[in-house]
Write a structure and sequence with these properties.
By secondary structure, the chain is mainly alpha-helical. The protein is built from 14 helices and 2 strands. It folds into 2 domains: 10-107, P-loop containing nucleotide triphosphate hydrolases (Rossmann fold, 3-Layer(aba) Sandwich); 163-276, Up-down Bundle (Zinc Finger, Delta Prime, domain 3), CATH 1.20.272. It is 49% helix and 3% strand. Helix 3 (73-84) links the parallel strand 1 (61-65) and strand 2 (90-94).
Length: 291
């Protein structure tokens, strides 16, 4: 989608919005949310204009706002007026992964519906039966999807965006753990956005944690380097690594310096020396906030 300029005419905003309509058809991988996009007031004004017209082919009409928390203040206020004066034949559906960012006035006028994560077996079978995924593809996509069928479909289409191989090699120790190895990893993954870097590391550390507590990891079973890497990391370190990555996952979706952000991730996540891992953790031995 071509992003309209900030001073774009209303027609350009609507055209940019409608150009993405086909990307959200049922049965296909929807595009990953882009945190840089903004829902502008012109889009909501267009919706309000459509509200004044009766449905064409059905009794009811539905308006779906994807990632509704990305409305700017003007757009949110304009939408609020429509929610305060609901029409019998029209229904608004607002989807969001961050409901806390929606204004309280909008949340109070909506019925909240939470979607549970799908069971891994459901996703795995669906991918093999409907997306023609081979078992190995379906297994990896299911592990990376964390209960989201849409994410699983995106993994099938572009696995490198979810599991960055230079980062995997660094995690397993294949590239070493020195400063030179960090720089080599960054060079090999220089076009990788921070969100993909965090996502890859989160996946690897979750697999490591699962192995450490005695759970199965089909991905690790097919990648012996993961099992070897887990042996040198204790449970306390893995817990702290996961907390650190979860804290950075929100920041990764903002407008940050990608190279500096990724460098900080890799250097902060260096495991402590093997000889010290069994001792109580000092104030900041491994993963932790880097401010």
């Amino acid at each position: 989608m071509r992003r309209p300029k900030r001073d774009a005419e209303p027609e350009e905003v609507i055209a940019a919005m409608l150009n993405r309509y086909s990307e959200f058809a049922l049965g296909q991988a929807q595009p990953a949310p882009d945190p840089r996009l903004e829902i502008l007031i012109d889009a909501i004004r267009w919706v309000r204009t459509e509200l004044s017209r009766p449905p064409m082919r059905a009794r009811r009409r539905f308006f779906v706002l994807v990632q509704a928390h990305q409305m700017n203040a003007e757009a949110a206020n304009a939408l609020l007026k429509s929610l305060e004066e609901p029409q019998v034949q029209s229904t608004f559906i607002l989807t969001t992964s961050r409901p806390g960012l929606l204004p309280a006035t909008i949340r109070s006028r909506c019925q909240q519906v939470r979607f549970r994560r799908l069971a891994p077996e459901v996703i795995r079978q669906w991918l093999q039966q409907n997306a023609q995924a081979i078992p190995a593809q379906a297994e990896l996509a299911t592990a990376l999807a964390e209960g989201s069928l849409g994410t699983a479909l995106r993994v099938i289409e572009d696995p490198e965006s979810f599991l960055v191989q230079p980062v995997v090699r660094y995690f397993t120790g294949e590239l070493g753990a020195s400063e030179r190895a960090v720089l080599a990893t960054l060079e090999a993954a220089k076009e990788v956005p921070p969100a993909s870097m965090v996502g890859t590391l989160l996946f690897l550390y979750r697999q490591a944690f699962a192995l450490k507590v005695g759970l199965d990891s089909p991905y690790a079973a097919q990648n012996p380097g993961i099992i070897e890497a887990v042996a040198s990391r204790n449970l306390d370190y893995l817990r702290r690594a996961l907390r650190f990555l979860l804290a950075r996952s929100i920041e990764a979706s903002t407008n940050v310096n990608a190279r500096l952000f990724n460098y900080t991730l890799l250097t902060t996540l260096k495991p402590p020396p093997a000889s010290t891992q069994a001792r109580p953790a000092p104030a900041r031995p491994g993963p932790g906030p880097t401010r």
